[in-house]
Amino acid sequence: MIRLYNTKTRTKVDFETLERGKVGMYVCGPTVYNYIHIGNARTFISFDVIRRYLMWRGFDVTFVQNVTDVDDKIIGKSLEEGRSAAEVAAEYTEAFIEDMRAAGVLDPDIRPKATEEIPAMIELIQELIDGGHAYDADGDVYFNVRSFPAYGELSGRNVDEMESGHRELRADGKGVEDRKRDPLDFALWKAAKPGEPAWESPWGMGRPGWHIECSAMSRKYLGLPFDIHGGGADLVFPHHENERAQSEAACGCTFANYWMHGGMLQINSEKMSKSLGNFKLLRDVLKVTDPKVLRFLMLQTHYRSPLDF
């Protein structure tokens, strides 16, 4: 019997798959606006090892990892460099795949790109509106957080005790607080702005919010529920909390049976991140380090624990 730590229950539990001998696994992929750093790589290497272990144990694993190729950060990079968001995303998607292969990470069985799955996202958003869990506000569509009583269970947060307009959620509706029914509501669809990529929808031209992308792609390729949803610990809130809320509100069922999250890679006990400028690019490290040595370093600490580099 395999036992694993489930973030949602905050306990170690027996791992029982939905279908005997098979595992459906979704791990959030990169937002492709830059080369990945070794902090990102730790998450991907950790789940590569977990996947390989399940395969070694005899499971038929279907591993899905998305590419977020439409996002505020990609648009910002495109404006900064004077080229299209599609060009930025294409360059860094290719670079990500190269870096993962160089680090010895297996390709996913399915690697959907957000921009190629817009119809699935629109369909899911419409289901949420029809079910009373989302609303249109002048071309933006927001998820009604309070319509989902279990919101906060994954991350251990109480909605009534949350800071009004939590910074992570506020970022999903910057400058449009007056359109939202509640400061905690987050964007499912964003109305088009000049110079940004946009697609036709029942609510006008626009683009999907970050969270709906993973919900739609995991549902399309694995069905609901599926076995394991994974990612870095920094994704528990708001990304995975929001994913779970909108997915379960739409289907009235469990989204994922097990939630697994990897610990952060740190520099001097501080999280490695592009925003802090304390990162080392994976491709630069691999120029001077054997990938097997890097993988061994990443596995020196339990995958859920922080690791100082």
TrEMBL record:
Top class in the EC scheme: ligase
Q: Which reaction does it catalyse?
A: tRNA(Cys) + L-cysteine + ATP = L-cysteinyl-tRNA(Cys) + AMP + diphosphate
Q: Which UniProt keywords apply?
A: Aminoacyl-tRNA synthetase, ATP-binding, Ligase, Metal-binding, Nucleotide-binding, Protein biosynthesis, Zinc
What are the names of the required cofactors? Zn(2+)
* Any Pfam family hit: tRNA-synt_1e
Which ranges of the sequence are coiled-coil? none
Q: What is its EC number?
A: 6.1.1.16
Naming one, the record's GO cellular component terms include: cytosol
Record-linked Gene3D superfamilies = HUPs
Query: One GO BP annotation here?
Result: cysteinyl-tRNA aminoacylation
Q: Name one GO molecular function term.
A: metal ion binding
| PANTHER family referenced in this protein's UniProt entry, alphabetically | CYSTEINE--TRNA LIGASE, CYTOPLASMIC, CYSTEINYL-TRNA SYNTHETASE
Assembly with partners or alone: Monomer.
The entry's protein name is Cysteine--tRNA ligase
Q: Which organism is it from?
A: Bifidobacterium longum
